[in-house]
Amino acid sequence: MISASKALSSIDQAILGVRRDEDRLTTMLTSATEDSARMRAQQAEAFRALARLKLDALARDEVVGRLDSAERAALDALEKRKTALGEIASDRARLVTAMAAAEKTREAAADRLEDAVDAVEAQAEATQTRLTTDGGWQEQTTLVTEAEAKAAAAAEKASQAETDRDEKRKPYDEDPLFSYLWSRGYGTSDYQAGPIARFFDAKVAKLVGYDTARPNYYMLNEIPLRLRDHATRLEQAAVDAHARAEAYERQALEPDGIVALESEVAAATEAHDKADAAVEEIEAKLATLDERQATMLDGARDPALTSAIDGLATAIAREDLSTLYKEAMATPTPEDEKIVRMLREIEPKLARREAEAEEVRKAAVELARKRAELETSRETFHRSGYNNPRGQFANGALIGSIITSVLNGAMSSKNLNDALGKGFSVRKPPRSSSSFGGGLRFPSSSGRSISRPSRPSAPRRSSGGFRTGGRF
Question: Which label site among 40, 173, 275, 382 has the fewest CB atoms less than 10 Å from its CB?
């Protein structure tokens, strides 16, 4: 069994761990991309040297100019990207550090809130124990029990009368002549008709025995209404009895120090809300940085860099340079042999580095996906109200195991959400009580109040029952 705050902390810590791994991969990917661009620049420099050796002045100037332009564009784009990624990495590192501190603050605030709630309920239980020998409270409890019993009996009787009415009125409702006279108010002061209509209505009334049936039908409908009104009055009397009992309990709670304890709950709730808001603010900033970084690391979403690098690669791969390279290899001279050897060394290194960069990029994308799964579960955690200060999870070990499986790619947020839903419960107050002293409401970190059930409209309260908490 683990508390809700501990379960949330487990998810948060896993997300932070993934973010740190993402930052390391981003550094590796940036390095690999820079190495690739540097090697392409070395290729360009080698081909420029070949052009100077092998080509005449006109062709040399055309080739060198084209390579210079492509190289400058690629290096400029790479430098801009490097600067932007450096800024993002710096901001992410700062925010991840701030997030770790903010989550510790929130966890401490959650512990404080839970302790404050426990103190209120413990005091309520102590006050109940003291009142068990109090004659006034015993009298109030007896009055509540009696009022509830009367209200329940009256409600049952009214329901039975309504059932009987629905069954017994069918023959009346199914008789078209009786229904016709009843709808016109025949035999009452509401009846209005001319002489001829009165004459024939009287004939119809005599035919169906309306004078005898009408009062029976009237009472058949009227008795359930009166019984229901009576049940409603007794129900209100039970509610009033509850209110008097709760007021009596409240008067007993306040001298025992419940007001100060409730104030601490309110202060702890405010501190928890503030800490939660701080975490959410950092989460929003990190999400913005995540999107910016993902765009820059994905070649398809960074057209400026892709275009520049592709332009350099295209310039190097032109047919005239390829021919130049083949000729230099076929008839090496001391001047061009060194250049050819450099080009032959660069090519496998470049291919290997680009393959490594692609693997790192795929790993970064996969890490981002796993983080998104955990973040989805974290959103579900808050949205489902699992951050109740009395919340707990019976399957803490399973939740930890599933978090590990999500990080390994074997499970998803759905599995984690299912485990959270099945394991969650709210710890019962002392003695399984319900609303001592008027009920206790616990504000949650999302701003929605989480309340212990207060007295229902037709409540049940056994003699000597205890209703936890004070009221805020």
Answer: 173
CB distance 124 to 437 below 8 Å: yes
> Which residues are CB-contacts of 335 (< 8 A; sequence separation ≥ 6)?
53
Grouped pLDDT means (10 residues each) for the chain, 472 residues = 88 89 83 79 72 50 58 69 80 89 90 89 88 91 93 94 88 87 85 86 85 86 91 94 90 90 91 91 89 72 60 55 60 67 79 84 86 90 85 90 91 91 82 57 41 36 36 30
Cα–Cα distance for residue pair 311/287, rounded to 1 Å: 32
